[in-house]
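A reminder from the course coordinator: this example appears on the midterm review sheet, so study it carefully.

Given structure:
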């Protein structure tokens, strides 16, 4: 967890057990309930910049998903339905009725699956940097990441930041010396020592995911946020989700990359989410 800054002083961390899954959960603020679902390889802290900026008006909740050490779950393989069921159980455990659900990357896929499988628990879905299914370059890259781990290759620490950061941030961010020093330190700490099987199981669940059949009949409103400089999930991939959704709205934020909501331009993303929530929740 040392690769991330801290939540606000009023944040509460607890362990919530539902069935055979024990999740590390963090919540902060008061107001309408919002579940922020972390992306792949990311703990709850992956959402802290958004939560720190939105908890003045909302009860923000996040957690460690399966495959992150703070949460204990049966061994994989897992399906996106498993991840969605965990999130739905968390809504029942900590929210006052249906909640807004928002997530980035794998968290965006989970957001969509929760809305499809448990529409009565979701007031509004805000998937970010997402896809209805994964194909093309992103599929080839993710399959390669899985295969290199299956072949027993362990990436050395000196390679981690320069490898993963280029998929997460736009060029202008990477060439900002001060920001790059933060990203380099954080990404080295974040991916160093990561268990290969946890990454394999999380990423394979993403590759197996295809929610295209469920979107047209899902009654939950979808507000899909994309980022113009996103290498992992280009805006065109995000737009498939909003186009297929029964009630879908599409946003493209210029100049941001896949993980710009952390360290780079979190206020821009938080402002977009706040605008959506203000307009839809009243």
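Designed residues:
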């Amino acid at each position: 967890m040392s690769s991330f800054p801290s939540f606000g002083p009023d944040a509460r961390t607890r362990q919530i057990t539902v069935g055979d899954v024990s999740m590390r959960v963090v919540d902060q603020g008061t107001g309408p309930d919002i579940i922020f679902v972390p992306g792949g390889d990311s703990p709850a802290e992956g959402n802290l910049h958004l939560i720190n900026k939105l908890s003045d008006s909302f009860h923000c909740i996040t957690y460690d998903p399966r495959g992150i050490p703070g949460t204990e779950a049966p061994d994989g393989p897992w399906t996106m339905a498993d991840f969605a069921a965990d999130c739905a159980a968390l809504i029942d455990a900590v929210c006052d009725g249906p909640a807004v659900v928002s997530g980035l990357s794998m968290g965006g896929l989970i957001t969509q699956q929760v809305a499809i499988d448990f529409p009565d628990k979701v007031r509004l879905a805000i998937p970010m940097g997402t896809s209805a299914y994964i194909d093309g370059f992103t599929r080839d890259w993710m399959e390669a990441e899985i295969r290199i781990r299956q072949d027993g290759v362990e990436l050395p620490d000196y390679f981690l930041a320069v490898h993963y950061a280029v998929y997460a941030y736009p060029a202008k961010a990477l060439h900002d010396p001060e920001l790059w020093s933060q990203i380099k330190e954080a990404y080295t700490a974040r991916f160093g020592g990561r268990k290969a099987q946890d990454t394999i199981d999380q990423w394979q669940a993403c590759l197996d995911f295809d929610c295209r059949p469920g979107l047209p009949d899902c009654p939950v409103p979808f507000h899909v946020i994309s980022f113009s400089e996103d290498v992992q999930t280009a805006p065109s991939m995000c737009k498939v989700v909003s186009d297929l959704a029964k009630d879908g709205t599409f946003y493209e934020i210029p100049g941001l990359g896949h993980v710009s909501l952390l360290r780079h331009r979190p206020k821009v993303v938080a402002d977009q989410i706040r605008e959506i929530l203000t307009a839809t929740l009243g």
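The mean pLDDT is 95. Strands lie at 12-18, 21-28, 33-37, 59-63, 99-104, 122-128, 222-227, 248-253.
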